[in-house]
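Subject: for your reference before the review

Hello V.,

The reviewers asked for a structural picture of the protein, and I figured it would be easier to keep everything in one thread rather than splitting it across files. Below is the amino acid sequence we used in the manuscript, unchanged from the supplementary table.
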Amino acid sequence: MFVADEQTEREIEPARWEALARAVLVAEGVSGEAELALLFVDEATIADLNQTFMGADGPTDVLAFPIDDEEVGVGRSPDGSTSGPDRDPFGDVPLLLGDVVICPAVAARNAPTHAGTYDDEIALLVVHGVLHVLGWDHATPEETSQMQARERELLDQHHSRTT
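And here is what came back from the structure prediction:
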């Protein structure tokens, strides 16, 4: 796992969020060698990614870039509805999962009306992003309900909520 804090607006504890991402991967059945990048970026960076890949203006809180997005071909598309990663049974190379990009400044703004605290919001975004990389989506009401339920389960199991 590669974790990088490439922003200065909010404090981030990379080791803490790496541990949460690893716990989610294990809980979701990922075993063996696997690669995931968890990046914390500023608003300008995530706004640029949001425009480039989602066609949306302005910064967002999280984007997930699954490696196996077959619809894109070359390059990556965030939050695409994919079947999740698949390992070549004959290869001895790590399973390439993708990238999760989080903007702590947006998370801090959203926290009071969303997850409650800044730490809880970052935890939710880490779990949400990892689930996207693993093929979860929220394009339909049923998918949204299922994904939110799984997020709650994973947060209850692997994140100590702050008050």
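For the response letter, the relevant points are probably these. The first strand starts at residue 2 and ends at 5. Residues 71-77 have pLDDT under 50 and may be disordered.

Happy to draft the paragraph if you're swamped.

O.
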